[in-house]
Amino acid sequence: MQIETADDYETLAAIVAERAPQARLLDEITAHAGADYHSVWLDETDTTVWHAWSEPGEDLWTLDHEPAGEALAWITETLTLALDALASPEEAANYLDRAGREEDDLDALNELEAVRLSTLRSRSADPVVIDRMIRSEMDAHRQEIRLLSRLRAGNLQRAFGTERGAPAAAARALGVTPESARRSLAAADEFDTQIRDAATQARQERRDLEA
Cα–Cα distance between 116 and 126 in angstroms, integer? Predict the structure, then answer.
């Protein structure tokens, strides 16, 4: 929600200081957004984000105020480069070019997590309930990975078959070990077996209860 506009940044920063004295400037998120034209604060007391911004070349500044959950998407997008580097630090050009850059990205991750936790705290102040929400999201990601592994297996089986020499052929094409290729090729069958076994067990447990 737009709160105010002004011809200078200082006026909006003063509004944040007055209305949200507990809000802290998110330095790394601000840096990634472009500190010349953006400042981002998090107020953890009411789980909201303040954002003062201006378009390059313009004098008008705008101050927005929104729930942390609504700001989370654009903040995450702002940190895309940092998150990509953290996902593959051994391949990150930024880390090769400047020592200590990884510390900046870790600080950015800490700030992003503070926004994410504020989003969860807006739903519950109980840390146990918050932990349950995080674990639920982790379970959803694990299931998505299992489904993607099954999809990958289908692609590899279609390309290299399922015969004895398939793992070796897949390994050569993918640049992995034969054992890694074998596991990838087998993921679909293993997934299907787990589903069938779980369904069979559930039916047996119900019959035992009804007996």
Answer: 15
